Each structure stands twice: as C-alpha cells, then as structure tokens.
C-alpha cells in the first residue's frame, strides 16, 4: 500500500474514533488532575505525562515540514508558526508551570495522548507540507480571506486559552495543592475558558488551512473537551456552594 492510501485510511479512522470517543467521554472522565483515579494502572508525574503526550505534536509536525522539503512560502511558514506557537508552549513550557504537587497521571492516559498527538501531527503536517501539493497553498493562499480570518480566530483562541491557564496556575500559593474558584477574564462567564480558547484555536486552524485534517482535529478537540468541561463544571458546583450560579460550563451564554 502506498503512503497516500495509508494516509486516507488513517484520516477516516481518526474521524471514526472521534465520533465514538465523543459519547463515551460523557460517561468516562479521563483520570488526571481533579479527576485523578487510582484504578488506571501504573502512573507517573503529571509533568512527565504532559511532556510525553505533547512532544510528538512539536516533533512530528516539524519533521513533516522538514521532509516536505522545508517549504518557505508565506502560508507554509504561517501554518508552522501557528502550530508551534501553541505546541512548543504546551509541550515544553506548560509542564514546568503546573503546580500539581504529588498528582500522578496514568501511563495509559499519556500513551493514548502520545498516540493521538503523533497521529494528529502526522495527518496535519503531511497534508499541509506534502500531500496538498504545491498549488494548494501557493503564495495566493496567504492573502486568501480564509487564511487570515482563520489565523485571527486561532490567535484569539490562543489568547483566551493562555489567559485562562495563567489565572488557574496563579491560584495556588507555593506548596498549596487544593482548588479555589477562579475569577476574572472569561471565568466571568464560563468554568473552562481554557478549553473554550483551545476549541476556538483549532476551529481557526481548520479555517486557515481549509482542510479535512484541520477539521478532524477541531472535531476531536470538541469531542475531548466538551464532556470534560461539563465534568469540571459539575465538580465546581458540588465542591463550592458559593459557586457563581450564572456561570456556564464552556460557551459564554449558552452551556
Ligand atoms: P485544567 O483546567 O483541569 O487544569 C489546568 C491546571 O490548572 C492544572 O495544573 C490544575 O491543577 C490547575 N487548576 C485547575 N483548576 C484549578 C483550580 N480551581 N484551583 C487551582 N488550580 C487549578 O486543564 P487540563 O489539565 O485538562 O488542561 C491543561 C491545558 O491543556 C488546557 O489549556 C487545555 O485546553 C489543554 N488541553 C487540550 C486538549 C486537546 O484536546 N486539545 C486536551 C486536554 C487539555 P491539577 O492538575 O491539580 O488539577
């Protein structure tokens, strides 16, 4: 089987697994962070888990760019910039900013994350820098409204995600491991603005690339983070009797 055929199988498989995972995650909450559980086998530190899970996003996507002939047209460099802006932070800076204390992550969760980010980076990188072909993202794409509208949406989502994570990561004083009610920024409206921002980012990337792999990643992000936001929201309401009643879970004003 040649690589483009294998690629198509992987892409459709990726979409099918997203469609199956979405309903399942309403019943199973991934056991890390506040939803930590002991029954998921061997564990390692949260920090190691994040490094393992997110590194393929940086490395595989970069390898796709490199083995795709290091394209230096404006659109290709734009895709590379947006992707690495998010993932260099997520893989190599975020794990050193978390203050989770002794919290552990199941190796199984990190292994699933590793498989997911490797596949996702391959599907997006290989499409953008090789399989799309030289005419798909030529220099005109850089001035196409889809490119700059999508990039602007991505950057807005990135700003929301960063601000929300910054607020969370500053709630604990040195040595603290408990939870507090986050306030300010988009927390005025929702319990999980970091997830909301992340979803906006990848919807923006899907528009910017106008591609099936970009759309598949955005759908995966929703499938993963919407059920988790609802779990976080329920958890906040149960834990804090004074939790702001008007706050929604994920999307301001809606749900
Ligand atoms: P959480 O919001 O659950 O936690 C983020 C960090 O803040 C953790 O270190 C957590 O500590 C701490 N924290 C959270 N809430 C509180 C609180 N109320 N008081 C004190 N500290 C708090 O996010 P995730 O860990 O699930 O995700 C982290 C980032 O990764 C997010 O930006 C998210 O968007 C992104 N992500 C993206 C995914 C995707 O599919 N693209 C999938 C999963 C995450 P603790 O660990 O102790 O709970």
TrEMBL record:
Its main location: membrane. Keywords: Membrane, Transmembrane, Transmembrane helix. Residues 104-255 form the 3-oxo-5-alpha-steroid 4-dehydrogenase C-terminal domain. It is found in: Membrane. PROSITE patterns: S5A_REDUCTASE. The chain crosses the membrane at residues 6-28, 105-123, 202-226. Pfam families: Steroid_dh (PF02544). It is a multi-pass membrane protein. PANTHER family: 3-OXO-5-ALPHA-STEROID 4-DEHYDROGENASE (PTHR10556), 3-OXO-5-ALPHA-STEROID 4-DEHYDROGENASE FAMILY PROTEIN (PTHR10556:SF35). This is DUF1295 domain-containing protein. It comes from Polyangium mundeleinium. The lineage of its organism: Bacteria, Pseudomonadati, Myxococcota, Polyangia, Polyangiales.
């Amino acid at each position: 089987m040649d690589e483009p055929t294998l690629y198509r199988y992987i892409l459709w498989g990726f979409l099918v697994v997203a469609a199956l995972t979405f309903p399942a995650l309403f019943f199973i909450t991934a056991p890390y962070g506040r939803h930590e559980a002991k029954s998921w086998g061997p564990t390692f530190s949260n920090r190691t888990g994040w490094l393992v899970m997110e590194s393929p996003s940086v490395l595989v996507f970069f390898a796709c760019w490199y083995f795709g002939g290091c394209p230096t047209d404006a659109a290709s460099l734009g895709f590379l910039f947006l992707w690495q802006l998010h993932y260099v932070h997520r893989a190599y800076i975020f794990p050193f900013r978390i203050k989770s204390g002794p919290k552990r992550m199941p190796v199984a969760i990190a292994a699933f994350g590793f498989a997911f980010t490797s596949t996702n980076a391959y599907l997006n990188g290989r499409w953008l820098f090789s399989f799309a072909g030289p005419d798909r993202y030529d220099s005109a794409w850089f001035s196409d409204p889809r490119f700059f509208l999508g990039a602007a949406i991505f950057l807005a989502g990135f700003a929301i995600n960063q601000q929300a994570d910054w607020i969370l990561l500053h709630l604990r004083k040195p040595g603290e491991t408990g939870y507090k009610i986050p306030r300010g920024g988009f927390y005025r409206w929702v319990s999980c603005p970091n997830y909301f921002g992340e979803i906006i980012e990848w919807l923006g990337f899907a528009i910017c690339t106008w591609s099936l792999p970009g759309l598949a990643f955005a759908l995966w992000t929703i499938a993963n983070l919407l059920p988790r936001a609802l779990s976080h929201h329920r958890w906040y309401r149960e834990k804090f009797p004074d939790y702001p009643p008007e706050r929604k879970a994920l999307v301001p004003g809606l749900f």
